Amino acid sequence: MSNSSSITEFLLLAFADTRELQLLHFWLFLGIYLAALLGNGLIITAIACDHHLHTPMYFFLLNLSLLDLGSISTTVPKAMANSLWDKRAISYYGCAVQLFLFVFFISAEYCLLTIMSYDRYVAICKPLHYGTLLGSRACVHMAATAWGSGFLYAVLHTANTFSLPLCHDNTLDQFFCEIPQILKLSCSHSYLREVGLLVVSACLVFGCFVFIVVSYVQIFRAVLKIPSEQGRHKAFSTCLPHLAVVSLFVSTGTFAHLKPPFISSPTLDLVVSFLYSVVPPALNPLIYSMRNQEIKDALRKLITRY
Asked: CA separation (Å) from 295 to 42, 131, 170, 238, 287?
């Protein structure tokens, strides 16, 4: 193929050659997807319906759940349909839309996770200034910044990636349209421009990660001063899972986009992408909210009411 204009569709990675394994992958993804829909949907409903949860922390949790639903709905349904109907094709423009939406939701979610670490830092380390630093207007502006940053980031990467001439093939070694896999198809040195953009993006991601880690270090130092052992245990049991999910999200996402070509393989790429694209949206409801007593009480009220 001489250039990208001759490509009308891409072929995504087939999970298995046998029909039985394809159906197994379908049911596995269906279970994960339904769990993510249920968990995030319950959180959104509980926060929206219970006025006691109309606070900055839960406002950010609601936005996180919306982003989780968006990101997992961008990739998993298409993978399920391909496994169920034994297909691999995705149209050129469908691939562009999927890439745009995935980058949008993922980057906005990471910005929001950074904001949430700041929220917890202010709540625990500067409680007297919480109402001033995180008023309703400030929270809306922060959330809007996260969504807007994700949109601009997605436009930049999508436009840059799909402006490259593609001539090697139309086969992607991934179950969704991912930037590194499309770059492999480029037949021009122009792809170095997108690689450079990815490196700059990785530096920004690392900067946010350092901010998150420093915030949690300050939080842990404040928690250690709590005289109650039960209070310390509650704070640690909440903060440590948050940090673990962020670490998994950052490490796997960065590795997927910046790993050296000589250690690349379809199986490794699939596992790494699964860890940063599918696992966090499914686990976030459990880690961020289902362990929270206020969320449980709000859900119990909803169930009792209806």
From this structure: 9, 21, 46, 14, 12
